[in-house]
């Protein structure tokens, strides 16, 4: 637990910092491999820089003395690149357990959400609201018939279930997840309701106290799980019937049958009538998130370079909009990460969500820097713009992979451009901005490679002479 290892550091913050350290160590390994494969010697002064960088990393890690790995060897650009990678790794390790890591501080301010997006593109075909209206109409109509067949006096339980499984859902996976949760929760609630009704039967005060507790727990846990809500709601019904003197096991069994009928009808209609695949829906939300990420990077880097017109409030509104898109994606992807549906590839998609959350944090941090920093001088502006263009090209390639998974995309190697931008940074804020871009590029590139893109080939170092 993060609170035990680093008191005051929340779990989500620690997870992001560990992810950032992982990306940095991957870069370190790549730089080390490039140095090992180099066929020319390393200069003594550059070896001293490497030793100092290793000592810094050792101090941050708190490990024992590390012998000089480059004794008796010389170096050129690969050694400088390795020294820079070691330095960045030590900073990342320091940030992991730090309480005040400024580079990874979240943008938590709340304000106006900006102007509504009136230019949103209208997708061809039925609107989602129209498609869902047709599905709900058919599901509730069938639920009326099935519910009447099961119990003419309590048919509405099936209709309510068929309606609720469609509420705030966008795909059949969400409907499936919500449906089985309601059935399982009702089944467990029937058993618990019988036990509670028998235990407090005849005691009005105990029944009322238990009733209020069940109502509180049901609504308190409703956002956590539909199954937990149905469990406590069924227990409430058992207590109510007991207080009214009409408790019957048959009534609870009818409730279970009506709920199962409504859930099955809702799932069947969602799967057969204008179905909407969960993975297609999630891929669309991921593409939308990456499109917003690309736009935010463009606006933030323009402001950092001194040629943008976005303005501080506009940038923060874009950052909040990107955060809201990620929240929508989390909700839509829940069937792929929890429950019985989406068992295959669940761990992989959890990793995808962690990566996109890290990208969101890096982009929002970049936007915050852009609102607080003045423009860069000529060479630094050009280097920053070129590095950002390479990172944005990888973001667009990743978006294309989600939109057309069958296509094989080529990624852009932004390492040298990011190194140049960091070397030419006008001040500490611009250097921090480049490090945000580097982390974002590492996250995007790793996710794209996992989805089938070709790993960018780093250019071979030029030989001296």
Outline:
It contains 17 helices and no strands. The protein has 465 residues and is mainly α.
- CATH architecture descriptor name of the largest domain: Up-down Bundle
Total number of strands: 0
> Beta-sheet strand percentage?
under 5%
Integer count of domains = 3
Shape: elongated
Structural class: mainly alpha
Major β-sheet annotation: none
Distance between the termini: 54 Å
SSE run: HHHHHHHHHHHHHHHHH
Q: Which regions contain 5 or more consecutive residues with pLDDT less than 50?
A: 63-76, 96-122, 340-345, 460-465
- Helix segment tally: 17
Estimate the mean pLDDT confidence. 75
Proportion in helices: over 70%
Rg computed from alpha carbons, rounded to a whole number of angstroms: 28 Å
Top keywords for this entry?
70% helix; disordered C terminus; mainly alpha; 465 residues; 3 domains; Methane Monooxygenase Hydroxylase, Chain G, domain 1; single chain
């Amino acid at each position: 637990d993060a609170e035990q290892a680093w008191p005051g550091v929340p779990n989500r913050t620690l997870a992001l910092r560990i992810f950032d350290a992982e990306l940095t160590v991957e870069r370190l390994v790549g730089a080390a491999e490039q140095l090992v494969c180099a066929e020319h010697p390393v200069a003594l002064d550059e070896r001293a820089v490497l030793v100092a960088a290793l000592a810094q990393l050792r101090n941050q890690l708190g490990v024992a003395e590390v012998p000089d790995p480059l004794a008796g060897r010389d170096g050129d650009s690969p050694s400088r690149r390795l020294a820079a990678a070691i330095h960045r790794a030590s900073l990342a390790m320091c940030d992991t357990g730090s309480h005040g890591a400024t580079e990874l501080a979240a943008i938590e301010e709340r304000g106006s959400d900006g102007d509504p997006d009136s230019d949103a593109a209208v997708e061809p075909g039925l609107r989602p609201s129209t498609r869902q209206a047709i599905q709900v109409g058919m599901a509730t109509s069938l639920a009326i018939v099935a519910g009447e067949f099961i119990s003419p006096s309590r048919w509405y339980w099936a209709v309510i279930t068929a309606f609720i499984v469609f509420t705030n859902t966008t795909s059949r996976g969400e409907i499936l997840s919500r449906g089985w949760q309601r059935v399982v929760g009702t089944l467990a609630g029937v058993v618990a309701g019988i036990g509670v009704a028998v235990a407090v039967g005849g005691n009005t005060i105990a029944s009322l106290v238990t009733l209020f507790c069940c109502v509180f727990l049901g609504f308190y846990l409703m956002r956590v799980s539909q199954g937990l809500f149905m469990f406590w709601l069924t227990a409430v019904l058992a207590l109510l019937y007991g207080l009214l003197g009409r408790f019957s096991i048959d009534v609870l069994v009818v409730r279970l049958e009506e709920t199962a009928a409504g859930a099955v009808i809702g799932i069947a209609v969602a799967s057969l009538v204008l179905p909407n695949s969960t993975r297609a829906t999630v891929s669309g939300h991921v593409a939308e998130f990456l499109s917003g990420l690309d736009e935010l990077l463009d606006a933030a880097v323009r402001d950092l370079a001194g040629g943008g017109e976005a303005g501080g409030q506009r940038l923060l509104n874009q950052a909040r909009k990107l955060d809201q898109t990620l929240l929508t994606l989390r909700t839509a992807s829940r069937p792929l990460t929890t429950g019985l549906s989406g068992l295959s590839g669940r761990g992989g998609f959890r990793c995808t969500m962690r990566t996109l959350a890290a990208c969101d944090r890096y982009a929002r941090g970049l936007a915050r820097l852009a609102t607080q920093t003045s423009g860069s001088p000529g060479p630094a502006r050009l280097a920053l713009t070129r590095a950002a263009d390479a990172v944005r090209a990888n973001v667009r390639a990743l978006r294309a992979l989600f939109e057309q998974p069958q296509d094989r995309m080529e990624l852009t190697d932004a390492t040298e451009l990011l190194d140049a931008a960091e070397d030419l940074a006008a001040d500490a804020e611009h250097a921090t901005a480049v490090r945000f871009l580097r982390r974002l590029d590492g996250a995007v590139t790793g996710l794209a490679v996992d989805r089938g893109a070709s790993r960018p080939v780093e250019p071979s170092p030029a030989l001296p002479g």
